[in-house]
Amino acid sequence: MGDMRSIWKGSIAFGLVNVPVKVYSATEDHDIRFHQVHAKDGGRIKYNRVCSECGNTVQFADIDKAYDSEDGSRVILSDEDFNKLPAAEKHEIPVLEFVPNDQIDPILFEKSYFLEPDSASPKAYVLLSTVLTESDRTALVHFTLRQKTRLAAMRARDGVLVIQTLLWPDEVRAAEFPSLDDVEKPKVKELKMAQTLVESMAGDFDPTEFTDDYQLQLRQLLDEMIENGGKKVIPAAEVDQEGTDAEVVDLVAALQRSVDEAKSNASKTPAGKTSGSKTRAKKRA
Predict the structure, then answer these.
(1) Contacts of 23 (CB under 8 A, 6+ apart)
(2) Which of 27, 18, 22, 19 shows the shortest CA–CA distance to 7?
(3) Does residue 219 sit in helix, strand or coil?
(4) Mean pLDDT within 107-124
(5) Cβ atoms of 114 and 1 closer than 8 Å
(6) What is the per-residue pLDDT for 270?
(7) DSSP assignment string, 33-65
(8) DSSP state of 15
(9) If 57 and its partner were Cys, which of 48, 51, 200, 257 is the partner (CB 3.0–4.6 Å)?
(10) Of 223, 177, 235, 215, nearest to 30 (Cα)?
(11) Is 219 in contact with 211 (CB distance < 8 Å)?
(12) Contact (CB, 8 A) for 58 and 49
């Protein structure tokens, strides 16, 4: 997979077949990133997480999550509380059922991931990919990533298995527009004219024919400004490199805490066994 790094290892389970796989993010963001700066002198704007009670800056390692109920009560949850919640087997992608491709509304699609075979023989992987292609069906699966279990669609794309996480139906807002109520249907002549226009503009979709003009022009603008210099361009030697953004400090703290917890869990779990109980995947009612 080139320089791509897998973000998850496990296996697909359908029937008595087990397919070891590695998971990779299938997409990447190419948008140009900007920082907030003081317009007067170009100084980087930095943020601190300040407690509203004591007024002190709080490190990420000391932050828990809280839920405020409708009556105003606040419940504070720690990582230990979240770990008690039931979740699908973290390193297994159970197949729930196979459904026709056209029955999944595209509005439900969320994020896409590539699956690479992770065994000496990819025979089972190729078998699953082939049967999905030839049956024109999509496998509905449970996919657990970063402690969150999602319903997902697994399909074959040019021989490669792809997982696309799905939104739950109640996460899609209802489109209710009174302006569409009791609207007169198009007249036959109007519909024929519109169909003629569609046919005149018909073609086969090729995404390589289109370009992100905004990003191209933005990059050109930035390159020209750097080349020409001026008050709005601060030379690299003068940019303040001292200090680290709060986000970076917090990320390091979070990573360190994750490493410590992983070592702690490893020491508590007997060799050859996994912690937690396996639960059979069920369709959401």
Answers:
(1) 6, 7, 8, 9, 10, 113, 114, 115, 116, 145, 163
(2) 22
(3) helix
(4) 93
(5) yes
(6) 55
(7) P---B-TTT-PBP----B-TTT--B--GGG--E
(8) T
(9) 48
(10) 215
(11) no
(12) yes
Q: What is the pTM of this model?
A: 0.69
What would the pLDDT profile of 32-83 be if each residue is shown by its tens digit?
888 888 888 888 888 888 998 898 999 888 889 999 999 989 999 988 888 7
Mean pLDDT of 196-209: 92
Residues 6+ apart with CB under 8 A from 46: 243, 245, 246
pLDDT of res. 274: 44
DSSP 8-state secondary structure symbol assigned to residue 266:
H
Are 24 and 7 spatial neighbours (Cβ–Cβ below 8 Å)? yes
CA distances from 255 to 61, 63, 252 (A): 10, 14, 5
Strand partners, 116: 22
Residue 160 contacts residue 114 (beta carbons within 8 Å): yes
57 token code pair? 């800056």
Buried-exposed string 179-203: b where 16+ CB fall within 10 A, e elsewhere: eeeeeeeeeeeeeeeeeeeeeeeee
Q: Given a cut of 60, is residue 1 above it in pLDDT?
A: no
Compute the distance between CA of residue 23 and CA of residue 25 in angstroms, rounded to an integer.
7
The whole-number pLDDT of residue 86 equals: 72
Give the Cα separation of 281 and 14 in Å (integer).
11
How far apart CA 265 and CA 276 sit, in angstroms, is: 11
List all residues 6 or more positions away from 250 whose beta carbon is below 8 Å from its beta carbon: 49, 59, 60
